[in-house]
Every structure is written in structure tokens, then in C-alpha cells.
Design goal:
With 97 residues, the protein is mostly beta strands. It contains 1 helix and 8 strands, in the order H-E-E-E-E-E-E-E-E. Strands 1, 2, 3, 4, 5, 6, 7 and 8 form an 8-stranded antiparallel β-sheet that branches.
Length: 97
């Protein structure tokens, strides 16, 4: 298992990630995730408090993921999951490159 610090170091601009699960009320598999969040997205910026992704809808807009507390993150090197304070999964990403 990796740490939050390990994940932050891995997220350099240009890193490709894919949202593979999103809580969205009842938990959505990849094919039900909103189109702008679906598919492979590129990391644009990584700051100490959040990471910025490029949306896939061609709009040029960005999406932000606030870094959670270390206790609310599970990272195994290829995927990471963010959990709520209650321990329920909120979102899962797969790191493509």
C-alpha cells in the first residue's frame, strides 16, 4: 500500500487517470459515470491541496479533486480510492500512465 505522499509524487502534469467508480448516490460503474468525468483524463496541475484534471468533453474546462486526509485514501500503486469520513468509498481512479 502506498501513502498519500506517494500518490501526490506520482501525479505530475501529464499523468493519465481514469475514473472507474463514482459514488453518485448509489455507486456508478464506469459506464454510468457522467460523460465529462468518464474515460482517461490528463492531470494538469498537482498542488498540495488538490489535483486538477482536464475534462473529456472538449470544453476545455477543468475538474478538481481535493486531496483527502491520508486516513481516507487507499492507494496500491495502480488504483486509488477516496473514502468518506464514515469509511464508505466515494470515488476510485485507475492510473493509466
Amino acid at each position: 500500500m502506498g501513502t498519500l505522499a506517494d500518490l501526490k509524487r506520482r501525479f505530475i502534469p501529464g499523468t493519465l487517470v481514469e475514473c472507474v467508480w463514482h459514488q453518485g448516490g448509489l455507486g456508478m460503474p464506469a459506464n454510468e459515470i457522467p460523460p465529462a468525468m468518464r474515460g482517461v483524463r490528463k492531470v494538469l496541475r498537482n498542488r498540495s491541496v488538490d489535483v486538477t484534471f482536464e475534462l473529456n468533453d472538449g470544453s476545455g474546462k477543468e475538474s478538481h479533486l481535493d486531496w483527502p486526509r491520508a486516513s481516507c485514501l487507499q492507494y496500491d500503486g495502480d488504483e486509488f480510492t477516496v473514502f468518506s469520513d464514515e469509511g464508505k468509498p466515494v470515488i476510485r481512479y485507475r492510473i493509466v500512465s
